[in-house]
Design a protein that fits this description.
This protein has 182 residues and is mainly β. It has 2 helices and 11 strands. The chain has one domain: Sandwich (Jelly Rolls), CATH 2.60.120.330.
């Protein structure tokens, strides 16, 4: 497979789950951050997912598109989820926008490409936290279990289907490309 790469399986995510259970009010908390605007106001479809952002995109002017912005800001939930932040800092030198996404049993997120210049300079990863899901990228599919860390090419069409018997929770995060060394 070229479009999805399993980096590691069997990662213990129990402490991450414990913090999610400890702070259920953090889900959708990014909506209460001052001066935020949903992509729904720009004509994007509403997705059947729960969102708990720890670092979210930002813009300087309301008319700017967050996908074309290099700005990112931590949300109030960032300080509650120290286990996932510690994981990121242990395994990656830098990370950018990140958050948990929840998808109900049988739920699907249709094929899409992440739009904007922001995504051209970053790699996207998932750390599966709860539930089992099928992830499809550029025509390749893999079934993902909790504790799996994967990279995928989000510059290609990608989508997911919850094939498990519980809500799927995954942590999605972006890592800036390494600068070219001459």
């Amino acid at each position: 497979m070229n479009n999805i790469k399993i980096i590691k399986t069997g990662i213990n995510v129990s402490k991450i789950v414990k913090q999610l259970d400890q702070y259920p009010e953090d889900w959708e908390g990014q909506k209460s951050v001052d001066k935020t605007q949903s992509l729904l106001t720009r004509g994007y479809a509403d997705l059947p997912i729960g969102v708990l952002q720890l670092v979210m995109g930002a813009v300087t002017k309301a008319e700017d598109f967050v996908g074309d912005s290099e700005l990112s800001v931590p949300t109030p939930a960032y300080d509650h989820h120290t286990e996932i932040i510690s994981f990121l800092k242990r395994h990656f030198k830098k990370f950018d926008r990140c958050g948990f996404l929840a998808l109900g049993v049988g739920g699907e997120v249709g094929q899409h490409i992440d739009e904007g210049t922001y995504y051209q300079t970053r790699d996207r990863y998932h750390l599966a936290i709860k539930g089992k899901y099928r992830y499809t990228v550029g025509g390749e599919s893999v079934d993902v279990e909790p504790g799996t860390l994967l990279w995928f090419n989000n510059k290609l069409m990608h989508g997911t289907h919850n094939i498990g018997d519980e809500t799927r929770v995954t942590f999605v995060f972006d890592v800036p490309h390494a600068k070219n060394k001459k």
